[in-house]
Each structure stands twice: as structure tokens, then as C-alpha cells.
Design a protein that fits this description.
This is M protein. This protein is mainly alpha-helical and about 55 residues long. It is about 60% helix and about 10% strand. The chain has one domain. It has 2 helices and 2 strands; from the N terminus they run ββαα. It is elongated, with a radius of gyration of 16 Å.
């Protein structure tokens, strides 16, 4: 997986003809990508919590 992998936005049509991002389909089937996403989300949550604690004193 290249560094730009998560930035790919190749689009193809759903059964009803509406476009969808292929990356979402790949991510849904790929535990490695899911783990990367979770780590990223967890980091954001941690930073948000730390900021909230700083504000609260």
C-alpha cells in the first residue's frame, strides 16, 4: 500500500447507477485499513480528551 492509498477516490456506479467511492468498499473488507482508521480516530479522541481536560483545569 502506497502512502497515497487512502487518498484514492476512484468512483464506480452502484446497482442503481449512483456513484460510490471504491475506497470505502475496500476499507470495509480490509481489517488493516480498519485498524489504521481506528488508530487515527483514537488519536483524535485522545487529543480531544486532553484538550477538554486542559480546559476543565
Amino acid at each position: 500500500l502506497g502512502a497515497g492509498f487512502t487518498n484514492q477516490t476512484e468512483v464506480k456506479a452502484n446497482e442503481n447507477g449512483s456513484p460510490r467511492e471504491v475506497i470505502e468498499e475496500l476499507a470495509a473488507k480490509n481489517p488493516v485499513i480498519q485498524n489504521i482508521r481506528l488508530r487515527s480516530e483514537n488519536q483524535k479522541l485522545k487529543e480531544s480528551l486532553e484538550n477538554a481536560m486542559d480546559v476543565a483545569g
